[in-house]
Amino acid sequence: MSKDKSSRAEAYANVVGAAEIDFVRLVKSEFEASPEAAARDQSKWKREFLFELVDHLYNRDLGRLHGFIQADAFCKLGRKKIISVKCRYIVSYRISGQPDNDAAFAFVQRMGKFSAYPYFRSHFSHVTSEAGLMLPPLPIMKDHPQRVWAAPTEAPE
C-alpha cells in the first residue's frame, strides 16, 4: 500500500472510530401508484431501487456530520413507472476529535446509505401495503450498487 493510500485509510479509520450515529430522519416522502399497479400479475414488472448521498455537511467545530440520502424504488411495466416511492433522509453523526474532511465525506458517503436503508425498506413496505400491493421486500443493500430484484414466482392470493 502506498503512503498516500495508507494515510487515507488511516484517516478513514479515525472517522470510523470517532463517529456515533445521532439520528436518521425522513424529511421528504412521495408515493405514487398508477391503476396498473392493481393488476395481480407482477411477473412482467421490472423492479429497481437507487440509493445515493446527494449532499453532506461536516462541521468540525461542532463535531457534527450530516448526510442527505436520496432513496428511490419503483416498479415498471415496460417503460411506464407504475409504482414509485421516493424519500429523502438526513443521517446525522456525532464526531469526536477533528478528523480529516475528505475522510469524513468518504465515511458518510458509504455509511450514510447503510444507516438510512433499513428505514427506507420499512417505509417502502408500509406504503405499498397500505395501497393493497403485495410486493416482496426490497433486497439487502450490498456494498456495491444494486438495481434490480427478482419478481415473485407466484402472485399472492
How many helical stretches?
A: 2
Query: How big a fraction of the residues is strand?
Result: 35-45%
- How many beta-strand segments? 4
What is the 3D shape? elongated
Walk me through what this model shows.
- This protein has 157 residues and is α+β, with helices and mostly antiparallel strands.
- It has a single domain, classed as Bacterial Protein-export protein SecB, CATH 3.10.420.
- The chain is 29% helix and 38% strand.
- Strands 1-4-3-2 form a four-stranded antiparallel β-sheet.
- Helix 1 crosses helix 2.
- The C terminus is likely disordered.
Keywords for this structure?
157 residues; alpha+beta; Bacterial Protein-export protein SecB; four-stranded antiparallel β-sheet
Helix-strand layout with pairing:
Blueprint: H1 3-18, E1 19-33, E2 45-59, E3 64-77, E4 80-95, H2 101-130
Helix pairs in contact: 1-2
